[in-house]
Design a protein that fits this description.
The structure is a homodimer.
Chain A lengths: L2 E6 L7 H16 L3 E6 L5 H12 L5 H25 L4 E4 L1 H4 L1 E3 L8 E4 L2 H8 L3 E5 L2 E3 L5 E3 L4 H13 L3 E6 L20 E3 H9 L7 H10 L3 E5 L7 E4 L12 E5 L2 E10 L4 H11 L7 E5 L5 E9 L3 H15 L3 E5 L2 E7 L9 H11 L6 E5 L2 E7 L3 H11 L6
Parallel strand pairs in A: 1-2, 1-9, 2-6, 3-6, 9-11, 10-12
Antiparallel strand pairs in A: 4-5, 7-8, 11-12, 13-18, 14-16, 14-17, 15-16, 18-20, 19-20
Chain lengths: ~400, ~400
């Protein structure tokens, strides 16, 4: 018997009709002799509806209450999906994050999974019952409800697959798989049949919304074979798995972009050890994840400019900290820029192919696009540019690296 | 310090604006030096929306899944209400049925409370935090979510008030209190200032929707002083409390009606001991609550007709059982009638005033209304009539007993 964890996103369970389709598909998989475990997100639009209700009542709702509020969405979709499966003649039972035993830390709205017991899920499987698990949620040791951050249902699926030693974790979404870049921007964008955890991780954390970054880390850590595929077709999708030799033949696998970042610059900071550390410690303590960091020597040689980017949603919180630190350091000034985009070129082949960086910079330069910040890793080059050039940059780079070709 | 449990129904928390009004009212009560514990229902319309989604997917959804589905509604309103209180500068925290420690039996959709620990609620109160409790829900020993049946939030409020030894349990609703009868039918209907638990119990279980019957039983058992009042005005409402001598001066306190019952008759049943017992044991085992029961000797003297009423929602389930039993008993036939209404005259004064029954029957007869079934208790007379005469019957009885007069 093959054990498959199937995760369905909000669009896939967005209406009674869609939920029925999911149930039919699950029933089919089950009747072929597989054991299926479902993980569902809230019905499409539900989470946004709840967030907007919260913001009608409070400009800065308490995070514990946000988790209580938002975790209700998955209970609804899980219960409805279990009902739809029952209607198909399949025994099914919904389970909350608590009932699954998804124990998290206490970082409300961005909780980290510490443990997955899955006892009741295993018991259900042993009794031939299809478990339908509420994605996105867990519970603290103190029995408070937590959520796992945006896209957290992917993480639930992978974590449950790991806990159950499932053979496969299928992530059903509204696209056909992982593409070389956003097909809305580049019509020649090609679906990848296979991608390594490392590349997926870069693409995921860089704004390719197809799979949550933390779920990919988790999959890599526990070696969970993940398939990203469409819930609207029977195409095979993209397999996310361990790197193999074939993959290294290609220098660049894909191009991602992220417009939802804000760039901060603190100008004229004393250029001495410990300054950056103090700044970023303050930011980290506020639970804000800094992405790119660049430090330049200022015109005055004893002073430095520090630039960094944070998620756009953390702009206000970050500004408070930056203003405080800038005052303490007697900095020359600060600037905030929301009109930026980060373009990233990703590929495990970069390890063996040289010249990817040079080609990237040249291509952007040829199109008159100025690069504000650069950051690189073993398998990635990211450039921050003016956001109005996002689509142009993605198109010219996709073309330059000939990603439309197999 | 006075400890007040305030329960707000679906209409009272039906929108962000309404929730803000509840928070303002609570904040005011809190700032006067009282400690407040809130119990909230799902936002108006939410439960119906979820039920209709369930019925789109399944004609007979599993009850465990219904509970998982419906219990989400109160999480939403409780979290939003806590946020609104925080925004008023009041420390507040939402608690689910589980977090409150409302332990129930396993009768999904109609669970009975077995225990209320309320440890976290007490802790919150000690820390000056206003607890906002999800009404309507509990949890089994096995950690499954249950709901307490229609109007279950009233029961939550009374049970929590009992567990906390609260001074008062205020039930906020969309009417001004308990009336002598439905003001939509009789414009002269008068609001009662005070009513006994016994009378309220009869009125509640007889279809006066203002307060759930089980919550009144609970209040009586634990001597919880309940006030039913409007969340849209500052009028004093109706106090539900122990019977006192004043109350006995009046023969009749109110008139209730219930159109949501179905009458079954099994005709030509052998008139020997044990027959009725067998029938009603079968019905009880299916979890159906039978209301009125009347047995007549049939025209053939060795045969009897048994009539009884059940909630209209249980009609299909009941018919299956009745058909089976009728076959086994070789009964002459069965009949089902949904077009009935039960009219009930309630008053603790009936214990000392005679002639209420006679006056009731005479009044109905004078209006040409035929009585199909009669059942009486110490403080109540109920008559089943053709449902088309409901409003007429209520009006003529209200007039006959002069209930419009103080």
């Amino acid at each position: 018997m093959v054990l498959i964890v199937q995760k369905y996103g909000g669009t896939s369970v967005g209406s009674a009709e869609r939920i029925r389709a999911v149930a039919e598909h699950t029933a089919e998989t089950f009747r072929k002799g597989n054991m299926v475990v479902l993980v569902v997100s809230a019905m499409g639009g539900e989470t946004d509806r709840l967030i907007s209700l919260a913001h009608e009542l409070s400009s800065n709702p308490h995070e514990r209450e946000m988790d209580m509020l938002l975790s209700s969405g998955e209970r609804i979709s899980a219960a409805l999906t279990a009902m739809a499966l029952n209607e198909q003649g399949i025994k099914a039972m919904s389970f909350t994050g608590r009932q699954v035993g998804i124990i998290t830390d206490t970082s409300h709205t961005e909780a980290k999974i510490e443990k997955v017991t899955a006892d009741r899920v295993k018991q259900a499987i042993d009794n031939g019952i299809v478990p339908v698990i509420c994605g996105f949620q867990g519970i603290t040791e103190n029995s408070d409800v937590t959520t796992l951050g945006r896209g957290g249902s992917d993480l639930t699926a992978v974590a449950v697959a790991a806990a159950l030693h499932a053979d496969l974790c299928e992530i059903y979404t509204d696209v056909e798989g992982v593409f070389t870049t956003d097909p809305d921007i580049v019509s020649e964008a090609r679906k990848l049949d296979m991608i390594s955890y490392e590349e997926m991780l870069e693409l995921a954390s860089l704004g390719a919304k197809v799979l949550q970054a933390r779920s990919v880390e988790f999959a890599k850590k526990y070696d969970v074979r993940v398939v990203v595929k469409s819930s609207f077709s029977s195409n095979p999708g993209t397999v996310v798995t361990r790197e193999d030799k074939e993959m290294e033949k290609v220098a660049v696998s894909g191009i991602a972009y992220d417009k939802n970042q804000t760039k901060f610059t603190i100008m004229g900071v004393p250029d001495r050890p410990g300054i950056a550390a103090a700044l970023f410690r303050n930011i980290a303590e506020a639970g804000i994840v800094v992405d790119m960091i660049v430090q330049n020597i200022s015109s005055d040689e004893k002073l430095a400019d520090i630039s960094f980017t944070v998620p756009e949603t953390d702009t206000a919180k970050t500004r408070d900290i930056v203003e405080k630190v800038a005052r303490e350091l007697n900095a020359a000034g600060i600037s905030t820029d929301k009109n930026i985009a980060k373009i990233s070129i990703v590929g495990v082949g970069m390890r063996t192919h040289s010249g990817v960086a040079a080609k990237t910079f040249q291509t952007l330069s040829d199109s008159g696009i100025n690069i504000m910040m650069i950051s690189t890793s073993e398998i990635k080059i990211s450039c921050v540019i003016d956001s109005k050039y996002t689509e142009l940059a993605v198109r010219v780079l996709h073309n330059a690296f000939e990603l439309e070709k197999e």
